[in-house]
Design a protein that fits this description.
This protein is mainly alpha-helical and 39 residues long. Helices cover 92% and strands 0% of the residues. The termini are far apart.
């Protein structure tokens, strides 16, 4: 099952998207912390 999951390009997209979301989520968290410190 792992080999099929890795070879299918559609499944690869599903893997890459969450990692991008995690990065943007962390960035937004840092921005929110800075805004809270200013306020």
């Amino acid at each position: 099952m792992n080999s099929r999951f890795g070879s299918d390009p559609r499944n690869k997209k599903k893997i890459y998207i969450p990692s991008k979301w995690k990065v943007t989520f962390k960035a937004s968290e840092n921005i929110n912390k800075k805004l809270n410190e200013k306020i």
